[in-house]
Structures
1.
Amino acid sequence: MRLDKLLSNGLGLGSRTDVKKMIKKGRIRIDGLDSLRPETAVDPFAVSVYVDGVLMRYREFVYLMLNKPQGVISATHDTRHRTVADLVPDEYSHFDVFPVGRLDIDTEGLCLLTNDGALSHKLLSPKNHIEKLYYAEINMPVTESDVKAFRGGIVLDDGYKCMPSELIALGSEKNKVHVKIFEGKFHQVKRMFEAVGKSVVYLKRLKMKNLMLDKALPIGEVRELTEAEIAGLKD
Ligand code: URA
């Protein structure tokens, strides 16, 4: 990789022009290299790069958990609405992360953001049946017959028969529920409730595969996944 690309894209030190200036000013040092030029070819995994004497860590991918607020769309660019990418702190902007899957504009909760296309593909592939757990509030109590219908596979408005899913009523009022699904059709949870004559008034994603929404992560905030969380998703 060209040195200016590593410094700019790989380490997020600014534009190519910015990093050229840094090289010129002697702010960059690389073990074993005496003279540095922007076009110098370096192995990003093998070199030790110091900026103002501080060792930088190169990594190709980043994995972020966002506690998505309502009113934000699961996209990277939009002319009308704020996007999940707008909530990513500047220090990650050079990674060009994107959301893995979509939550509706009014859905809150767990949103995974990464630039790892292979992992995203694996998690979204319909053949992998990745588990997703939602907390939902429904406009009326759910019944035992709804639970059975979810278990048997709900037929959506377009005729698609969903895979068996789990519906668990929480508390005695039975209008607060957990729903576990293993696929990701457009507006799936809302449409499943519509199919049994009910509507979702609040929806929050709590879990995707092994990855739980961090209860300590405030709405609208982002944190990096731990090594264990990343390994669990890749498993
Ligand atoms: N199902 C929905 O209906 N909406 C979401 O945002 C996610 C799942």
2.
Amino acid sequence: MASPDGAPHTADAVGAPPAVEQVKQAAKEQQIDPYNVSGGVDENGNVTAIDYDALRVRFNTPALTQEHLDRFERVTGKPPHRLMRRKLFFSHRDFDKILDYYEKYGFFLLYTGRGPSSGSMHLGHAVPFLFTKELQDIFDVPLVVMLTDDEKFLYTRNKNQGKITKGAALGDFIEYAKQNCKDIIALGFDLKKTFIYTDYEYMGGHFYQNITEFEALLTNNQIRGAMGFDGSTNIGLNAYAAKQCVAAFASSYPTLFGAGDFRAPNYEEARPRKHIAAIPTLIPCAIDQEPYFRLLRENCDRMEFPAPKTALILSKFLTALQGPGGKMSASDPNSAIFMSDTSKQIEKKVNRFAFSGGGATKEDHEKYGGNPDVDVAYAYLSYFLESDDELKEIEESYRKGTLSTGELKKRCIKELQKFVEAFQERRAKVTDEIMREFMTPRKLEFKGNPNATASIEEAVTEKKPEEKQENTSGKLTKGERKALKIAEKKAEKLALREKGQAGEEPKAEDA
Ligand code: TYM
């Protein structure tokens, strides 16, 4: 079948677009968890689009509403990112509470991650990172990025029934993590506020204490229920969830907040600090990761040093090129556009594989119009095209049939090439040294909310009980310095008044 302008029409490759009725019927059969993302299959064997409303109901996560967007704008003074405006980030947990905390204390911790399953990330993986970068810029807060080389190693070995396969030895995942780290840096994160780590390198100290404590709170049954594992799943993968969960605790990274960690040669900081554990976290990610964070939220307050329930902001999936029933997947190169693809490859993939919502023939398309709701080129534009006006105009003309599938694909190709080319230019400049700087644990520098009513220092500086009564360190505490300044000012004023009363002119050196 040919598209209206003669470009290859992809409906043949993946079957006809799903009818709305079919989507509803099949919604209960879709499978979404950290290791499986697929739409349902209808009675005719067609894969149906992921039903996000049904998913929200199943996961019990509230919708992100216009009120949230308005409040975001009020609190930050900045308009919400296009991914939020277009409800591609569509659901959340406790987003309101994070805004409350930010209004009062002026900061929180951002946390997101990537499972390095391949040397290059694809466009879908870039989505939460693009969004996270924008949040980091707007809120001016610290960010941790977890690269789960251990998870991907355990998962792949499990999938291959314990066998080592080509490109899936432990060392391969360590290498993928480094390459992905450079990809993430090239998306523009601010070094001063960002710590990126791989699990194999960083786990230890307070982080590892948090892991074992969290492992003690989770049962096999809970993990099997949330992840779809069974008794034959390797024990490493069963235990992994605790790692991804406690990575959300600020107390897993004391160094970033200027405190000591339990790592050689520093053995004094034996346990995490309560006040750091109390810093709340916001996680931007696609909704496949939600099962981890449900376990996290259920158990935050059972830790010895409890953390507030972690807030989430959840996105839909950038669909596979083949259509809205699946997500881009690194294991199927024809389903995805990689950040390492050339402009030519992007053009070829979109033209050849991108599922089209266009009419079956040129005449049909012009008569009945196209359907942007299932059209992959349109879907990609909705993620990457900044102009709301242009997107609307594209949608309307496609529905009317005045914009052809070929023209729509062309516009999409142009936008993706622009994004990927600019990315590749930045990526080429990310040296090993730059990567190491991002991966070095250090005190992060961030300013947070300038209108907050309490200072960041107050929120993250713990006063030891003895300091509150008597400070014997020789150094003044913040409170003491403030009190001293006030006392000095009062004394100055008093002195001036006394001089005035006594009728004395201030001497030159007093002026
Ligand atoms: P991973 O590598 O599968 O995915 C990385 C991030 O990309 C999101 N994602 C997508 N978003 C939009 N469209 C897609 N097609 C698409 N595919 C993947 C994922 O939701 C994720 O946000 N276990 C995790 C790594 C991890 C993590 C985290 C992720 C560790 N800690 C905290 C998010 C937040 C993983 O394998 O992600």
